[in-house]
Specification:
Helices cover 74% and strands 0% of the residues. The chain has helices spanning 9-20, 23-26, 34-53, 59-63, 67-77, 81-106, 115-129, 132-149. It is globular and about 45 Å long.
């Protein structure tokens, strides 16, 4: 992820595919576990999104997906709007992670070794890779989420 030039739906799909095709999924009886089923459902949703938005669609293109496109995705794979929005949100989060990791590689900085280190690096480096407009959008989204909770 840190060494790839771009992050798009095709990259995301490959990462999901690689993680769902592990050795546990090949064991008899393991392919029916909830985690494997969720991963396969996510793959189907991702493939439907790729068929509507295009394989090379990135975060900016997914932000522009409207109700009509989401309906097409839903019809194609049977997912509901909540699942489609969750996939888009997850992809956008992964896009930010990719940008932070690329920044660190390009500047000769160490990559994180564990999840805690990754969270710390994300908090420190996010302002270096996002534009001021993107930071404002994130702040607005966070505030909107806070209002929903209370």
């Amino acid at each position: 992820m840190a060494h790839s030039e771009s992050w798009n739906l095709s990259s995301f799909h490959q990462q999901i595919k690689d993680s769902s095709g592990g050795w546990k999924a090949k064991l008899p009886g393991m392919s029916s576990t909830d985690a494997v089923k969720q991963m396969k459902a996510m793959q189907e949703l991702l493939e439907a999104t790729m068929s509507v938005a295009g394989d090379n669609a990135g975060a900016p293109e997914l932000k522009k997906i409207g109700k009509k496109e989401k309906l097409k995705i839903s019809i194609h794979c049977g997912a509901d709007l909540k699942d489609i929005n969750a996939l888009i949100q997850q992809f956008q989060s992964m896009d930010i992670m990719h940008r932070v990791l690329r920044y660190r590689v390009e500047n000769g900085l160490d990559l994180p070794n564990d999840e805690d280190e990754a969270k710390t690096l994300m908090q420190n480096d996010i302002k270096k890779v996002l534009s001021s407009q993107e930071l404002k959008e994130m702040q607005r989204a966070r505030m909107k989420l806070m209002k929903k909770r209370y």
